[in-house]
Each structure stands twice: as structure tokens, then as C-alpha cells.
Amino acid sequence: MAAVKDAVLERAVDLAREVAVEIAQEPQDVGEYLGAVREAERLVSHRFACTARGYRGWAWTVTVARVPRGRTATVCEAELLPGDDAILARTWVPWSQRLRPGDIGPGDVLPFRPDDPRLEPGFTPTGDPEVDEVAIDELALARVRVLSPQGISEAAERWYRGSRGPATPGSVASSAACGSCGFLVPLQGSLGTLFAVCANEWSPDDGKVVSLDHGCGAHSETDVPSMPSEWPAPDPLLDENAIDVVERGSRETEGGDAPAEPVADAEPPADAEPPADVDTPAEVEPPADADTPADVETPADVETPVDVETPAEDETPAEDETPADTGSATDADARPADGP
């Protein structure tokens, strides 16, 4: 049954606009009058266009009513409602359902799920020491809930297909898999057959769970010899023009010290015999006509005495008779003054 026309309520347009302007953020957000809607008997809603940005197709709606036989309109409620062509937000999704991995920040707490299919009840001690020791110490089942087969399967699938599985670019380019790396820490349980934890600080996966067939450039055995190749290694290239010229005796020692002094020639021992293949020259006697005073001593530095007569050019002895030295004081004393 359609509502009966109510002249008192339909004429309350000014009252409805005043209320719409009052609840709007800005007065200019209330636009033109869009008409009245009879909601029920003695209940009418007046609608005004909303001109605020982002609210296309929305309308300010003010509902008025009156008591029976009353002649005064009273405001029941006022709100902003969408029209037929209004821009609406997405359907509301509860917070616990719209969370994604990585959304949890410091201080955030996930809602408790008592029926989580990824978990199952943990181990309850039986009182048998052997059974309890295996379950608690080795299998780590002394918890209220543990991973169920579904939880283990989902974790393995997620890890293996993630960024630390075998299909990443770094893993494909690596020379060896993580299964042979010395920095790999194995896991317990069924996940340990396929995954382990990286403990190399130089690796991009340090502290992360990696698959055994994953790989990176920080493998512990990267210094193994290179594999043989069918192509021979080229000969080394030597740059003969790059020569360091070092002057003898001008190199200084490290630290700016003075150059080292040359080592004097070592004197042979007194009892050393000359080699057999070296001919010792025989003592050459001075010429017979050389007048050497008997009382003249030759100084130690082998200087020619000033009073010794030099033989003439025509009296120069032959090359084979040239004395090897000017003679010492001992040789002069040993020979007679008039020659042999």
C-alpha cells in the first residue's frame, strides 16, 4: 500500500536543507534539491545532491516525520546515501581475511584460529621415558600444536617455488648447489630432506631457508680447480717494453736510509796456493846499465825517486826485459851497485 501524501512533511524542504548544511563539511557541498520520497505514513525523506569531490551520485537525505494530527515536522535522521550511479567502495572484507604475507608489523597480532588446518594437536607425554624422549627431544613435539601434513606440504611448496628455490637466476648461474656447501645447517624432520638454513654472511640468503638444489656465488668450494676445456690456454703475453731501469749504486734502502757501502774485496788467506793453470811471472832483473844508488830507499807508495837517472831512449830495454816494477828497497840492497 502506497503512502498517503502528506502536505505538512513535503513542505518542510527548508528545514531539511538547514539540517543537510549543518552535517556537511562545507555548506557548498549541499547542492540542488532532488525531491521527496514517501517512506511511510507521516514519514518523508528529502534528498539534496552532494557536490563534494569523490561523491558523485551521492545525496544528502534528511527524513522528517510528525505525530498524528500534528502540524509541525520533526527531523528523524540525516545522512549521506548513495544513488543509483554512485561510486561505491569495494565490499567490506574483515581484517583477519584481507591480511597478506608481510602485512604484520611490529606490535601487530594475528587473530587466533582454533581450527587452523595447517596445525594439529601436539604430543602429550605418555609416561614412558623412551617414547617421551624421542617425541620431545628428537621430534620437538612438546607443544600444544604442531604442523600438520597439510601445513608441511604448503610450506615446502611455498619455499621451493619461492626466491630461494632452484629456479632463481642466481641459482641457475651458480657453479654448485647448496647441498655441497659447508655453510649449510640442516633442518630436522621431513622438511630437512629438501631444505636447510644458510649460515654464510657473504651470501644473499644468510639466515634464510634454502632448498638443497639452490645455489649462489658464495659457495664454500668456489676455489676448486676449473674444469678442463677443449680449447688450449693461450700463452702469456710479455710486454718487453716495460723495463725498469735501475742505476747501479743509486738504489736506496727502504725507509730513506743511505745507500749501502760496497763490500771490499776479501783478501785470500796467506796459505792459499795459486791455481795450477796460472803462470806466475818470473822475477825480472833490471838492466845492467841502470845506475841505482845503494843508499836510496823507495817509499812504500811506489814513487819514483827524484835522483834515479832515467835511461836514454836508445838504451831502453826490450819489451821482454822491461822490469815489472821500479824495485823495492829490499831488492836494491840485495844487488851490487855495478850490476850482475
Please report the first level of CATH classification, the CATH class of the domain at 7-82. Answer: Alpha Beta
Instruction: Tell me the series of helices and strands, N- to C-terminal.
Output: HHEEEEHEHEHHEEEH
Please state the average pLDDT score: 77
Oligomer: single chain
Low-confidence stretches: 314-340
Secondary structure tally, helices: 7
Beta-sheet strand percentage? 15-25%
Biggest β-sheet: strands ordered side by side in the sheet: 1-2-3-4
**How would you characterize the largest beta sheet?**
4 strands, antiparallel
Shape: elongated
Distance between the termini: 176 Å
Helical percent range? 10-25%
Rg, alpha carbons: 58 Å
CATH topology of the domain at 7-82: Nuclear Transport Factor 2, Chain: A
The SS-based structural class is: alpha+beta
Corresponding CATH architecture of the domain at 7-82: Roll
Number of strands: 9
InterPro entries: DUF3027 (IPR021391)
Protein name: DUF3027 domain-containing protein
Biased composition (Acidic residues): 268-323
Region (Disordered): 218-237, 249-340
Short description:
The protein has 340 residues and is α+β, with helices and mostly antiparallel strands.
Present the secondary structure layout.
Elements: H1 7-10, H2 13-23, E1 30-40, E2 43-50, E3 58-65, E4 74-82, H3 95-98, E5 119-121, H4 129-138, E6 145-147, H5 149-160, H6 169-173, E7 184-186, E8 195-198, E9 209-211, H7 329-334
Structural write-up:
With 340 residues, the chain is an alpha+beta fold. Among the domains are: 7-82, Nuclear Transport Factor 2, Chain: A (Roll); 149-211, no CATH class; 287-340, no CATH class. Helices cover 15% and strands 15% of the residues. The chain has 7 helices and 9 strands, in the order ααββββαβαβααβββα. The protein has helices at residues 7-10, 13-23, 95-98, 129-138, 149-160, 169-173, 329-334; strands spanning 30-40, 43-50, 58-65, 74-82, 119-121, 145-147, 184-186, 195-198, 209-211. The protein has a 4-stranded antiparallel β-sheet, covered by helices on one side. It is elongated.
